[in-house]
Amino acid sequence: MAHYQNLLVAIDPDEEDQAALRRAVYLVRRNGGKIKAFLPIFDFSYEVTSLLSQDERMAMRQSAIDQRVAWIRQLSHYYLESGVNIEIKVVWHKRYHEAVIEEIIEHDHDLLLKAAHQHDMLESVIFTPLDWHLLRKAPCAVWMVKDQPWPEHGRALVSVNLSSEEDFHDELNRKLVRESLELAAFADSTEVHLVSAYPSTSINIAIELPEFDPTVYNNAIRGQFLVAMKALRQEFGIPEELTHVEKGMPEDVIPAVAEQIHAGIVVLGTVGRTGLSAAFIGNTAERVIGHLKCDLLAVKPDDTSEHDDHDDED
């Protein structure tokens, strides 16, 4: 987390309260770095007004940009006056998510923050199509922010993949834990938990193989996961009581544990192509994300290009 120094905040054009900007300010006040408040805008009517010359259309476009810059500056005035380093940038672009991704690539932003909307009745986080585009295609870590203050004595829940024999999963596990511990070092008493889900026996196996003992199989699988979890937690000095190895599907286990421990954020790994190509974040991550009720930090491996065809972390 300490290496996140060049933050890009995707501004919500329809909200006066910018939760993602608030979270970014929280981070840089404790961790250093700089913030760019970024907003792509577009009004098709400005492009098709045949009665206006090209210069007049450009002037109208610039006027709209200037108005939005002034609006963001007003929203940010308290932070700016307190000395927080915030650059404000508004661009004219037809596609919001493409503008954001292009900005990340051009200026080497290492963390994107965007507000996720909350369903008041269920307290669940609602991800819009724009959110999914950014989660899938952004070439840097993405922090989806729920509209609530960072909890005092909060907890970070790190989802780790203990089932893969591939080296890059082990490397990504370590990266997730390391960055979460760095977050805990400067956030307000954040406690880091680890979670991994292991599969239960398929009922088809038990039916087709009468001599098969599902209890023995489940215990063996759980044992393998516990050994792997022990090695990982000991490497980083995490107490055993802060680790969770549970039977079930990741999309059920991870949100349930997050709610049980009152996690302020879930940290998980994603794998996908960078830039504007047909990226993906992995089937497991997509299913997990849709069930969360807290902030989400989605982190890619250090070299995503090598792992485009693999699934994500649990």
From TrEMBL:
It is found in: Cytoplasm. Its main location: cytoplasm. GO terms for cellular component: cytoplasm. Residues 4-146, 174-300 form the UspA domain. Pfam families: Usp (PF00582). Gene3D superfamilies: 3.40.50.12370. Keywords: Cytoplasm. Required for resistance to DNA-damaging agents. PANTHER family: UNIVERSAL STRESS PROTEIN E (PTHR47892:SF1). This is Universal stress protein E. It comes from Limnobaculum zhutongyuii. The lineage of its organism: Bacteria, Pseudomonadati, Pseudomonadota, Gammaproteobacteria, Enterobacterales.
